[in-house]
Amino acid sequence: MPRNIWSGAISFGLVTVPISVASATEDHSIRFHQYHLEDMGRVRVRKYCEIEDREVDQGEIGKGYQLTKEQVIPISDEGLRDLPLPTAKAIEIVAFVPLDSVDPLKIGEGYYLAPSGQVAAKPYKLLRMALDRSSKVAVAKYAWSGRERLGLLRIREDAIVLHAMRWPDEIRSPEELLPPPVELSDEEIDGALALMDTMTRDDLEGEEFQDTYTEALSQIIEAKREHRELPKLQEPESEPGQIVDLMAALNESVQQARASRGEDADVHELPKKKTAQKQPAKKTAAKKTTKKAAEKKASGRRPRST
User: What is the Cα Rg of the chain in Å?
Assistant: First the structure.
């Protein structure tokens, strides 16, 4: 059972839904500590007061805002909780929008919103069913951890999920990172679409979506614990290199994708380049030119009439 990290209410017009918030995700990453390599003693970060030149414990530490080099304004957790904001105690819905209108870059961590008590059951279900039938998501404002945030409310199965969102001015423009202008043929675009078709899935289940990095770390730790030889790194079948022929790379990718799924790799080959189709026409034109030149040359050899 995930622990509650915040309690408040969803404000939906004049409707209030008391809720508690729990994280919707888990992190299974393997984490490391820092050690002194000579004797494997644990290396820790200790917190020192610069004025008293001594270590302080967590109970002596609080927040502060540095106004000037000499002046710091202390800020308490109680003061942050009592901010004069309607969003300090509630997740205030401000709009409903289609999900595809929200830039995925703005969407962050997800949290389950659980109804608090029997009194919240009916308005909670009302909001969930309204979101479901409208096929829209709610955009809300709320204040956690010393700052006001933008959030997105959607449904997942029978629960309402809150996603933290970034403010519009927190999204950087990609303009400086874009490649120089290039031209693409219809055949190359069709080839990319064909490759997408071979890689299309109905779900995200399967070994392709497992955390192989954490699994490899676990094997290394286990091998070291048992003083065994470390597992060998599996070399890739081919080294990535510069793409010379884009159509050839797409064609080979489609064949490899079909082969990995047990399909016939030779079925439905990608369209050929237009330049390859023009070769016969050029050859015919060359034949016509040669024939005309021969006729002209022959006419020049006819005897003159007297």
Answer: 33
